[in-house]
Each structure stands twice: as structure tokens, then as C-alpha cells.
Amino acid sequence: MRDWFSIDGRSRWNEEAIKINSSSIRRPSMTSSSTEMLLQVHSWKFPFSCNKPLITIPPTLLLISPSVERSSTPILKSSIYSQRTSISPITSSFSLSINEEDDHIPLRDICEGCVPDHILRRVEELGYLMPTEIQRQALPVLFSGRDCILHAQTGSGKTLAYLLLIFSVINTQRSAVQALIVVPTRELGMQVAKVARMLAAKSGQPVSEDKSCTVMALLDGGTLRRQKSWLKSEPPTIIVATLGSLCQMLEKHTIKLESMRVLVIDEVDFMFNSSHEVSSLRKLLISYSSIKNRQTIFASASIPQHRRFLYDCIQQKWTKADVVHIHANPVQPMPPRIHHRFLICSRSERHTALLSLLQSDAPQSAIVFVNVQSEKSKKAGNPPATTVLIDVLKNSHGGGHEILLLEEKINFNSRAASFSELRQGGAYLLVATDIAGRGVDLPDTTHIYNFDLPKDAVHYLHRSGRTGRKPFSESKCVVTSIITSEERFVLQRYENELMFHCDELFL
Ligand SMILES: Nc1ncnc2c1ncn2[C@@H]1O[C@H](COP(=O)(O)OP(=O)(O)OP(=O)(O)O)[C@@H](O)[C@H]1O
Q1: Per-residue pLDDT tens for 387-399?
Q2: Which of 457, 448, 447, 450 shows the shortest CA–CA distance to 483?
Q3: CA 429, CA 326: separation in Å to the nearest integer?
Q4: Strand, coil or helix: 285
Q5: Nearest to residue 94, comparing CAs of 78, 106, 115, 109?
């Protein structure tokens, strides 16, 4: 049988509810969103054996995939999907719910039965009570064991989504690397490792397991001596790594990945676009581990030509053929509460313009993005724009902010120091290159200034996404681009590509 069915979910979804009578089965109307999601459905087998209520379904329609053959509780739970999930036509055989009210299902209810209770307690202690849109859509699919491409706005909580999957599959009694998260920068790696450790940390209540989960950060810039001896003595459960350091260890056989159950590639489009990362990444996906033994998760807020990427994933065997592309808010690639503005001035007026903006906006904390110095400018003996800007701000800005610099060429220790300082709170003004544009989570950032216009729309999206990072907050955040009149049409192109509107600002 190849078709769609829906049932009325007016009651608890328990054994009785599953014994639906034929009158409650009907074809859903083919709305534009459902036609977009042509799912393959093979057989109609419900888990009649299940005898406990699984989830309360608010009174609306559910589309249920009859392909729920593996009838265990978590998998049945995993068959509830949101209408807003964009699933690729070629690969999907899962169901969708067309239910706005499942917005109110707590994170615990989605994870219960899959994620250990002590982790769920930590999740709640850390204040994660309701799922974000991507978590709500992705977690059931992730728990079902499918490979996934998590494609959702910046600051939408993709990290917690894949970490919850990891905590659902690892066995802390085993001494082996069971999950690997690959990130593009040291800063993002430090951040992800910190969240993983916070979740793994013991809460006030006793934990049933004898051993707890260990998280190793294997990041470029360190000597890696400590990590080498750690790997030899007792492998960590989760590794968060940058590709350079990881490949060093893999080539020397210091890390073994045969027990790896989850592989996450965060900021996946960045990794595939980076010429010095791409060959290592392909090796990791194909040679160092096999798609058969692992669940592969790719995450990013920007996956240009995602259909082509999905095709490549299958063709190149980076993922299994039934990989699911989960695209939350596809028509709104940036969080709507970010207000975009631009200010036109000549290049020589930019410092004065920025100082005036800082004075009038009085940001709580802000990031000023500057492009990396060009080779031509270096050869001409010009000082880097970042250094000049830091001097200008230190001498002329009286806003009481800590003024910090984050760029590639400062040494890793200073980079780490800047980053940890930012995370300790207090008002800051961070001058940064695009190194801070990807993944970095500084939720107190209220304003972004593009001192230089980003080089393309994807960079604009990620820079802008360093603000507006409190998922349930309504407060407005602001991105301001300081541009020349000639650059206006470039910004206009980004507006068209990313579907947002930018207001002109006059000082
Ligand atoms: N369920 C939740 N409830 C409240 N806050 C959450 C929830 N999930 C994540 N957050 C918070 O949202 C912020 C952004 O999360 P995260 O860094 O995972 O975003 P992201 O989707 O990876 O963004 P980017 O694409 O920019 O890397 C973090 O500060 C995180 O603590």
C-alpha cells in the first residue's frame, strides 16, 4: 500500500486509540505543503502490542506513517511530525502531524523513554523546558535512528537537539568513543563541549549509572599531549573536535571510531566549503567510519542548494539513503526579531559613524564585524582594520564596555581568554572577523555592526545570527551595516536572497 492516512487524535494515543475504525481514516487534503512532501509509505502496521499511553494528542488531525513497523515506544513516538518539517521527496518514509497545538508539548515529553532521566533533569535545571521549533521537529526523527540534516535558523537550538540524541544512544558503561561532534573552530568546539559537560554533569539527585559520560575537546591550537594520554588510558564517551586535530589522532590510530554511534558535523556547509577541510571531511565520512554503523547528523543555519546537498549525501555515501532533511522555518532563514538597518557613509567616515551609532544605540553588548585584511592591504603596509578599530574604540568610546578582539591571527591562548571573558558576563564590545560568525553563542549580544559588509549572503546570515539567540525572548535585536553608496545594491541582493528587509538609517 502506498498512500497517506490520517487519524483523528482526539484521545490519548494508546492501544484503544490505535485500534482506529475505518471511518476515522481518510486521505488528507493535498495542500501545497503536503504535496511538497511526497512520502513513501509501504505498509500499514501499527504496534498493537503497545499497552501504555504514549502521548496525549491534542484534538486535531495527525498524519501517521504506516511504516511504523519497529513497534517500540520511542519509535512510535518518533512517528509524530510537524507539518512544517520539510522532508525530501526521495528519502522520506515518515509521518507528519498537522497540529499547531503540539507547540505546547514539553521537551521532557518528547525525550522521555529515549533520553535518560538524569539528563532530562539536567536539561530542566538548565532551563530548557519547552522545545524550540527545530527540536520539536527533529528529536522524534533523531530518536528513530534516521540520519538527519538539521537546517534551522541561527540560535534555534540545534546543538541541544543533537546532544539529546547523543545522550539517548550512548552507554556510559562502555569505555569507547561513542559520539563525535566535528566543528569548524576552536571557539565553537569549546562551547559545544561545555554544553555537553553541563548536560552530563550530575544533578542533585542520584544517578543510576556507575560511570558518568566523559567529554573530550580535541581542538586546534593546543599541544594535545593531555588528550593523547587520556585517549590511551580510557577513551572518552564523546569527542568534540576540529578536523585538523582529529585527523592527526586518526592517522596515528590514537582514536578508534569503531564504536562510534553518532557522528555530527556542525556548520556542515562551512566545512564542505573550506578547501583545507574538505578532503579530511570526506575521509572521515567514508574511510574512517561507515554509514552502516553510525547515525550521521549534519547541522547548519545555511545549506545552500540543500536538495543538491541531500543528493550528494546519498550518492557519496556520507549518509544512508533514507536521510531526512529537516528544514524549520524555510521561508524565514533569519530570526524575525532581528531588525536590520544600514547606514551610508564614505569609507573614511566609518569610524565616526560607528562611534555615533554606539552612542545612540547604547547596546548592552555588541559585536563589530570586520573583514580579514586583504593581501594587497598587507603588502601596502597598512595596519589591520581590526587593530585600528580597537584603538579607536579604546580611545573614543565611553560606553563602559569591555573591548575585546577575536581574530584568526591572535594566538590560541588569547583567543580562548577573549572568549571566556565574554562568557563571564558584563558588557562587551567584541571586534571580530568572521571567525566569530559561525556558531558562537553569546546570548547577551543585542547589537551587531557590520563595519565591513560581509562577502556574501551566507556570511550576512551567520553574522546577524550572533544576536537574537534567546529562543523564547521577544526583545528586539539590531543588525546595522555601515556601507558606502556603491555597496547598497550588494546589500539589496542579500535582502532578496535571505528574504528580509533593511531600513535606511540617518544619523
Ligand atoms: N529548548 C530551549 N529552551 C531555551 N533555550 C534554548 C533551548 N534550546 C537551546 N536554547 C538556547 O538557545 C541558544 C542557541 O542555541 P544553539 O547555540 O544550539 O543554536 P544553533 O541553532 O546551533 O545556532 P547557530 O546556527 O547560530 O550555531 C543557546 O543559548 C541555548 O542555550
Answers
A1: 999 999 999 988 7
A2: 450
A3: 35
A4: helix
A5: 78
- Tell me whether residue 430 is exposed, middle or buried, using C-beta atoms within 10 angstroms of its C-beta: 0 to 12, 13 to 18, 19 or more: buried
Residue type, 64: I
Atom of ligand 1 nearest to the CA of 191: 17
Crossing angle (nearest 10°) for helices 158-169 and 133-143: 20
The average pLDDT across 65-94 equals 34
**Helix 350-361 and helix 385-396: axis angle, to 10°?**
50
Entry pTM: 0.81
Distance in angstroms (rounded) separating the CA atoms of residues 144 and 163: 15
H or E stretch covering 8: strand 6-8
**Do 302 and 458 contact (CB within 8 A), yes or no?**
yes
**ipTM score of the complex?**
0.99
Pocket test for ligand 1, best of 297, 469, 472, 477 (most atoms within 8 A of CB): 469
Q: 393: helix, coil or strand?
A: helix
Atom of ligand 1 nearest to the CA of 135: 1
pLDDT digits (tens, 9 = 90+) for 373-388: 999 999 999 999 999 9
- Of 123, 230, 247, the closest CA to residue 180 belongs to 247
Query: What are 303-347's pLDDT values in tens digits?
Result: 999 999 999 999 999 999 999 999 998 889 999 999 999 999 999
pLDDT of 419 reads: 72
Q: Is 187 in the pocket of ligand 1 (CB under 6 A)?
A: no
| Alpha carbon of 134 to ligand 1 centroid (Å) | 10
| CA atoms of 365 and 445, how far apart (whole Å) | 5
